[in-house]
Design goal:
alpha/beta, Aspartate Aminotransferase, domain 1, binds pyridoxal-5'-phosphate, 38% helix, four-stranded antiparallel β-sheet, Aspartate Aminotransferase, domain 2
Length: 415
């Protein structure tokens, strides 16, 4: 039966208890057994995010004249992002609700620049590596563009030559990931950007996962290739604060090396009955809480806090990577350097292994091409990674012994 609005309101205490009961079936992400969806860097960080969020929860960043506080905090967040990501003088950007919105806006900017050059953009082509996030397909779908997915190399990164071969007179944009979601690998960004520039195409770096992680891993000594706004030819970059920025959900950044490129993102219209609207993002009302929480968490952690978290995560990933490499029949997909790792098997049904692990209350993700188990590691995983490795070893033994009943019917990325 359809739920109806109660006639009279209830006590908050009663509702709170009811909501706790409703949430009791959710994954307990604090215990580190969830390898996706949540980025937990400790209760202290969570407290800062929560309190900052509620302080500005009612304010609306659609109105910077009414709420200069939010404008200032957004500018600070964007500028901290630009500094970390080696942006040139004159670079700019915005906060958005998440990676998908940042990507949508970057694709829109690429399309509108093409339009401004007199190009007919109906079904114009956006060339992405096979491993690029599905947010690009959604953006292309909404913007009436055609996505062209190009197979990746044996090392599971973007194939620059193959992507260049796909360029034709319908192409307007190319994409690389830093890192890609499926394998956590950084595409050859400098080569892709140079190729895009040679053909006068827009080039976007999807650093939704790496934007607020890779700079700190690099400071800690991880030898990363160039991937950010310091790379010549990069026209836009997405970097999520609600992932490894540890901010409250609803926070990403979309960044541009110049005002000129950013100008294609802006919506400016007065063709209705209530005055001119000038807004940079896809949302109308923009939640002040998400901006405030990101501002507070960034200032709370600082470079030292982020470096410490990155160190913990990289060490945890390395530990798991070493363990997987030692388990007979398993291999890691590519050579991950950050916090994401995926692994598969040529001998065993890896989804049966996944099922066995799932039975032990571990909630992680998968890859399909090739089949694999996928984890996005955070500081919360450090204390439990040995347990995970033990569960994984047992799962492999069970499946090898013929016990594969646990194979899940369907594992999805979302929904
Ligand atoms: C590489 C990459 N890009 C984009 C996204 C989309 O981000 P969001 O879920 O915040 O929309 C994700 C999400 O995991 C991602 O991993």
């Amino acid at each position: 039966m359809r739920k109806t609005l109660p006639n009279s309101g209830a006590d908050w205490d009663q509702l709170k208890a009811q909501m706790e009961e409703i949430g009791s079936g959710d994954m307990d992400w604090r215990n580190g057994r969830t390898g996706m969806y949540v980025f937990y860097a400790g209760d202290d960080v969570l407290k800062v995010a929560k309190e900052a969020y509620t302080m500005f929860m009612s304010e609306n960043a659609l109105g910077p004249m009414a709420f200069p506080s939010l404008k200032r905090m957004e500018d600070d967040v964007v500028n901290m992002g630009l500094s970390l990501l080696n942006a040139p003088e004159g670079a700019t950007g915005n906060m958005t609700s998440g990676g998908s919105e940042s990507i949508f806006l970057a694709v829109k900017s690429a399309r509108d620049r093409a339009r401004s050059r007199g190009i007919d953009t109906n079904d114009a082509e956006v060339i992405v590596p096979r491993s690029a996030h599905l947010a690009f397909d959604r953006a292309c779908h909404y913007l009436n563009l055609k996505i062209v997915r190009i197979p990746i190399t044996d090392e599971q990164v973007a194939d620059v030559r193959a992507m260049e071969k796909a360029i034709n007179d319908r192409s307007i944009m190319m994409v690389g990931s830093a890192p890609c979601y499926p394998f956590g690998l950084i595409d050859p960004i400098a080569e892709l950007a140079a190729t895009a520039k040679k053909h006068d195409l827009w080039f976007h770096v999807d650093a939704c996962v790496g934007g607020y992680f890779a700079p700190f891993a690099r400071m800690n000594g991880v030898d990363l290739p160039p991937f950010d706004l310091g790379v010549d030819g990069v026209c836009s970059l997405s970097a999520d604060l609600h992932k490894y920025g540890y901010a409250a959900k609803g926070a990403s950044t979309v960044l541009y090396p110049s005002e000129e490129l950013h100008a294609h993102q802006i919506f400016d219209c007065s063709d209705w009955s209530a005055g001119r609207m000038v807004t940079p993002t896809a949302a109308g009302t923009r939640p002040g809480g998400a901006i405030a929480a990101a501002w507070a968490v960034m200032n709370y952690l600082g470079v030292e806090g982020y470096r410490k978290n990155a160190q913990t995560v990289v060490e945890t990933r390395q530990k798991l990577q070493d363990a997987v490499s030692e388990i007979d029949g398993l291999h890691v997909h590519g050579s991950p350097q950050l916090g994401l790792i995926a692994f598969g098997s040529d001998e065993l049904d890896i989804f049966s292994v996944y099922g066995k692990i799932f039975e032990k209350q571990w909630f992680t993700s998968i890859t399909t091409e090739p089949p694999g188990i996928h984890l996005m590691l955070t500081p919360a995983h450090a204390p439990v990674i040995d347990d995970y490795i033990a569960v994984l070893k047992q799962a492999v033994e069970d499946v090898r012994a013929g016990d594969s009943d646990a194979k899940p019917k369907q594992v999805r990325y979302g929904g």
